[in-house]
Design goal:
The complex is a heterodimer of chains A (191) and B (317). With 191 residues, chain A is mainly α. Chain A has helices spanning 5-16, 20-42, 45-62, 73-93, 115-133, 137-147, 153-160, 164-187. Chain A has a single domain, classed as RNA polymerase sigma factor, region 2, helix turn helix motif (Rna Polymerase Sigma Factor, Chain: A), CATH 1.10.1740.10. By secondary structure, chain B is mostly helical. Classes of the chains: A mainly alpha (191), B mainly alpha (317). At the A-B interface, helix 1, helix 2, helix 3, helix 4 and helix 5 of A face helix 1 and helix 2 of B.
Chain lengths: 191, 317
């Protein structure tokens, strides 16, 4: 089912008035995306849960102040909160880029039930995360918001305070960088 | 070309295949908490909002006293907020409260001229004749804090209660700027160098601005009255928290200098409510000017807004 801006606007208005079903729909749509974005940024599952909870708590607290400025505004606003919360986390923790133990990483579902495949998935996540985190900060943010936040360029522009053309340029260059960095590992069958 | 395309395809497949997923139990637990918070905060159904807006248009000085709960949680902080925010202004406002002067309030004259009964009796407060038009995004607490007024008097002067909701376009009344503080009954001053613990029953009525603070323009005297010092060299009194705010409008990209900032002291309870209304957290605020000076503004920071961590960047944005 496509996620239409008009529907989202309606859901936001209703959620603001305390409509729990509208909020559930928004939550079901955005929770996995916010979690995935945060998990890539911080790595550790426990930290990702804490930050994701903070993001949604702040979103609910600030819903009355949210200004709907058109398509993409809500997603952009929500991920701006997520972006700020992650920045705040690193400001407090000062451990950006620290390696994270495998058993502390979040689950990466694969449809396979074999435990060894689940471990392989986690390892792939860890390697991909390291590659993405090595990108220039803007490119890293745009790539994460695009592929794991599920945001459109317009929403990313809203979240990061950029214009859409700049977002498109960062995305293109970010993917180029990622492909270049991934190539040696892919050739070595590491990724 | 084909190789590149294949590599891109493989990369995108890789990205879409490695998506971390939260523990479903955590997701459900958080959802339950959020729904509870949402219901607690929900002020009005849409019908009530329409009704409130119609009412406000008919009676701009009177807002329906509806039973809702969203601001109930900040009612207590507001009471305490009244304590500190009364620091300058309230000193004079309290002195005159209750004294008859119907001519001072335009509402009083309007009430006398109209046969339409005003649903809520709202005795005019002397000096509360400055008008402010509620802007989109304004909240009750935000207006009170930004204008540095006594929360209890603000509610009283505007026929509001802690459950009321401001509607864009609505006019609210604020106290007139204090132009000649000397005309007011002299109040015990607090030494900025040796702060005295401030209790709710022993509030200073006036805190003098230190010499380093330039007196702001008369029109902004009300809000400027809460500016205490540009230098966070004094310890906050017990129960109060220093907060760095913008002393002027700061444009995005500007290098932050100390003269752009000021420190105000908020009661702890108000502090919690205020940062929550900003969608911020305790760590998002600064307590001393020197933590900020030299950084760049990452966004436009309006005058009197607390400076948030997210507003600043070490490099020019």
């Amino acid at each position: 089912m496509s996620w239409e801006a008009a529907d989202e606007h309606d859901l936001v208005v209703r959620a603001r008035c305390g409509d729990t079903e509208a909020f559930r729909t928004l939550y079901a749509h955005y929770f996995p995306r916010v979690y995935a974005y945060v998990a890539y940024r911080v790595g550790r599952a426990q930290d990702a849960e804490d930050i994701t909870a903070d993001v949604f708590m702040k979103a609910v607290a600030g819903l009355a102040q949210f200004e709907d400025r058109g398509a993409g505004a809500f997603g952009g606003w929500l991920f701006r909160i997520a972006h700020n919360q992650v920045a705040l986390f690193y400001r407090r923790q000062r451990r950006a880029g620290e390696p994270v133990a495998l058993d502390e990483l979040p689950d990466v579902p694969s449809g396979d039930l074999l435990p060894e495949l689940a471990v392989q998935r986690k390892e792939r996540f860890a390697r991909l995360r390291a590659l993405i985190l090595a990108l220039a900060p803007r490119r890293r943010e745009v790539v994460l918001l695009r592929f794991f936040g599920g945001l459109r360029n317009q929403e990313i522009a809203e979240a990061l305070g950029l214009d859409e053309r700049t977002v498109a340029a960062h995305l293109s260059r970010g993917l180029d960088d990622l492909r270049r960095r991934a190539a040696p590992e892919r050739e070595g069958e590491l990724l | 070309m084909t190789d590149n395309h294949n590599r891109d395809r493989a990369l995108l497949d890789e990205l879409s295949a490695v998506v971390p997923q939260a523990d479903p139990a955590f997701r459900d637990r958080l959802e339950a908490q959020l729904l509870a918070q949402l219901q607690e905060r929900a002020l009005h159904t849409p019908e009530e909002e329409i009704s409130a807006m119609q009412h406000a248009l008919m009676y701009p000085h009177s807002v329906p006293q509806e039973a809702n709960h969203s601001l109930r949680s900040v009612a207590a902080p507001l009471t305490l907020a009244a304590a500190l925010l009364m620091v300058i202004l309230a000193g004079s406002a309290l002195l005159f409260m209750g004294q008859p002067d119907s001519g001072a309030d335009p509402l009083a004259a309007a009430q006398q001229q109209t046969a339409t009964p005003i649903p809520t009796a709202c005795p005019p407060l002397l000096n509360w004749t400055e008008r402010y038009t509620v802007q989109p995004g304004d909240t009750l607490l935000g207006v009170i804090v930004r204008h540095g007024v006594d929360a209890r008097l603000f509610l009283e002067a505007n026929c509001l209660d802690e459950n009321s909701r401001l509607i864009p376009g609505q006019t609210v009344y604020l106290p007139l700027p204090i132009e000649e503080p000397s005309a007011i009954s002299p109040a015990p001053a607090v030494s900025l160098l040796t702060p005295t613990p401030i209790g709710a029953d022993a509030l200073p009525l006036q805190i003098p601005l230190p010499p380093t603070v330039q007196a702001p323009s008369a029109s902004a005297a009300v809000t400027d009255a809460i500016v205490v010092t540009l230098e966070a060299t004094i310890a906050a009194p017990a129960g109060y928290v220093p907060v760095v705010i913008a002393a002027q409008d700061i444009a995005r990209g500007a290098v932050i200098t100390p003269d752009m900032l000021a420190v105000v002291y908020w009661p702890l309870d108000l502090y919690q409510a205020a940062i929550s209304s900003l969608g911020a957290d305790v760590e998002d605020l600064y307590s001393a000017v020197e933590q900020i000076a030299g950084l760049y503004a990452n966004a436009d920071i309006p005058r009197f807004q607390p400076v948030l961590v997210a507003d600043l960047a070490p490099q020019q944005p």
